[in-house]
Amino acid sequence: MDYLTAKETALKWNISSRMVAYYCKAGKVAGATKKGKTWLIPIHAKKPRDNRMCGNKVVIGDNPELQGGLRKINSMDSDNVSVYCISDVYKNLGLTRETLRYYEDIGLITPERNKNSQYREFTFHDVSRLMTIDFYKKRGFAPLEIKELMKSGSHGGYNQISKKISEIENNIRVQQRIVKRLSETKAFCEYAALSANIFSVKELPLYSVFKIFDAVSALNDYKDSVLAFMDLQEDDILSSLVRAVTFDRSGYKGSKMCIVKQTSQNKQAEGKYYLEHGKCLHTVLEAVSHDDSLMEKMFFAAYQWAEKNNAVFKGVVYIFIRFVELSGQTERNFYEIFIPLK
């Protein structure tokens, strides 16, 4: 019978000689015999089934070059001297050229340049840095924030996690407020489509009045008359303004702008000013900006309704801008009108 040595069998079976010796010692190779320190394996012996290969297990083949310790395994990466061009990097890491150039511009990466062609050359260290950047980016850190983390030294990333969580939670609250306002605006637009130019009786909620001034065009008064009473992070100017126009049977008498905010309280607090609230004649009107005919049309239509319904007005009309539609250089305003009833 012809025999092969463990080393020859290892080459034939594409495993290490140590693994061949293990199979022989375990009695898994029929006819194998040991002569001195050398195992002799029948030339036609079959490679034993590797019990590590079953189910969903991943099998890692033995590599003779790595026998002897973990340092050799680690050196596969640390000793990698390969150089990659920019197309290799962005194609294989899911990045764009523009992203790589931006990272380089702000100093996140510093690839070398070829002395002859001046093309960027990326080492495996650069690749590892890009994967680290992606790690932090997917956890909400912006590139410039990651750059600051690079400067912060040991535990910098860990110490910033709680701060980033608080920042993101605050952003979520801001976005939730925006969604709420968008939903309210959407609901108004849907309501306006069905009720435009139609009169009905509706309750006006209680609105606190913080400031009264003459006209919406009085821009020089805004700093003290408008902005001082608003939360500039949350409130927009249009939604904080209400035009209050006084009138009687002969026509309009006066006009003022009011800075208001709806209050959740049911009662008026002493020493504070409020819009007239309670039951009002209500309608929705739409018109392009500076349509002077709107007020006149509303005046006569409201009194016609009052005569038919035996209603009496308190002599003031409140005009809220609820939505503005932009079309080129033209603005079309959607007004919600409340006329308090006695």
Description:
The chain has 342 residues and is α+β, with helices and mostly antiparallel strands. The protein has three domains: 3-77; 86-152, Multidrug-efflux Transporter Regulator, Chain: A, Domain 2; 196-340, Multidrug-efflux Transporter 1 Regulator Bmrr, Chain A (Alpha-Beta Barrel). The protein is 39% helix and 24% strand. It has eleven helices and 13 strands. The protein has helices at 6-13, 17-25, 70-78, 86-93, 97-105, 124-137, 143-152, 156-195, 222-225, 237-240, 293-309; strands at residues 3-5, 33-35, 38-42, 112-113, 120-121, 200-204, 207-213, 241-248, 251-262, 273-274, 278-288, 316-327, 330-340. The strands form three sheets. An eight-stranded antiparallel sheet has the order 6-11-13-12-8-9-7-10, sandwiched between helices. Strand 4 and strand 5 (120-121) form a beta hairpin. Helix 1 crosses helix 2 (17-25). The longest helix is centred in the middle third of the chain and has 40 residues, at 156-195.
Q: What percentage of amino acids are in beta strands?
A: 15-25%
Structural class category: alpha+beta
CATH superfamily of the largest domain: Regulatory factor, effector binding domain
Shape: elongated
Cα Rg: 39 Å
Question: How many domains would you count in the coordinates?
Answer: 3
Strand order of the largest sheet: 6-11-13-12-8-9-7-10
CATH topology type of the largest domain: Multidrug-efflux Transporter 1 Regulator Bmrr, Chain A
Unreliable stretches, pLDDT < 50, 5 or more residues? none
What share of residues is helical? Answer: 25-40%
Average pLDDT for all residues = 86
CATH architecture name of the largest domain: Alpha-Beta Barrel
Straight-line N-to-C gap:
119 Å
CATH class of the largest domain: Alpha Beta
Q: Helix-strand pattern, N to C?
A: EHHEEHHHEEHHHEEHHEEEEHEE
Sheet with most strands: 8 strands, antiparallel
Q: How many DSSP helices?
A: 11
Strand segment tally:
13
Keywords: DNA-binding, Repressor, Transcription, Transcription regulation
InterPro entries: DNA-bd_dom_put_sf, MerR-type_HTH_dom, MerR_fam
Pfam family, one: MerR_1
Protein name: HTH merR-type domain-containing protein
